[in-house]
Target: C-type cytochrome biogenesis protein CcsB
Amino acid sequence: MDVNVTLATWSNLLIYSAMAVYAIAFLLYSNDLFGGRKLAAEQQTTAARRSAAKAGRPVRTSRSSVAVLDRDDDDASEEAGPVREAAAPGRRTSARMATSLTVLAAALHVAAVLTRAISVMRVPWGNMMEYALTASALAMLVYIIVLYFSDIRYLGTFVSGGVLITLGLCITVFYTPAAQLVPALQSYWIWIHVPIAILSTALLSVSAILALFQILKARTEKKDLTTGLWSMFARVPASEVVEQLSYRIAAVGFITWTFTVIAGAIWAEVAWGRPWGWDSKEIWSFVVWVVYAAYLHSRATRGWSATQVAVLNILGFGTLLFNFAVVNVYFDGLHAYSGL
Model:
């Protein structure tokens, strides 16, 4: 089947367009995260003073907190709501603009994936470029979906920045001209095994970024760090809240990765007559599974701190990246379908 060169070219143009919009969103998210922190602190202080003035109580302010003195527990619980509300989103114009642009960039990104697929009339994950292109689009969709239920705009700088870098690699280092699948990949299992692997990659990517924020937020809580770059964590919820979200996403990612390994073994049985052959890709896929299994187990084990567990999450993501960027390119094996 011939390649539609026009559509393949449009796919590349859409990638460049998405990169441009992601770059603007990245700058706006960065402005919100690093530049909007003083406004949030001022709003928190002002809200607490107004609340105290109405109640006729004095206010004590510090670099990291605002508290109303001489109140009992009932009064404290009644006044905490307005203070938290004012301290949270505020007038975050940059964040709202960045989110709108992120949705636009994601639409361009998905359009790039679809036009690439239509240009060759097959699935858009036949090589490393297409895998990274599709996985990064899905990671951004995961971010947008989670954002609908929970305000995680503090992740926007890193998610948009990571996707921007990935698209840059897709169009340069990983770039592969549109072509038909190699014979070994012309199987219905490519519709099952690879999409689940892509979904796993997207979920575990977002979870790892959350784990990083959890570690840094916990450090600010422990040492009361509020100056310099540490002040950006005023935007971030309590480390326990971030940890819960990171864990839930990673748990789903672990389930889908488990299915990825199982589906890969079934495809190997169909293609090569054996479910497991200690191929380099098979080994590292299993290593990823083991690390994330250890992460989930350690979270349920007493004696492990939340920070130690989060480090395992990040380590698992590191093995996932190694499995993709190193094993696919530099290791010999039956899974050498990078296209590079």
User: Anything to note?
Assistant: The chain is about 70% helix and 0% strand. The mean pLDDT is 85.
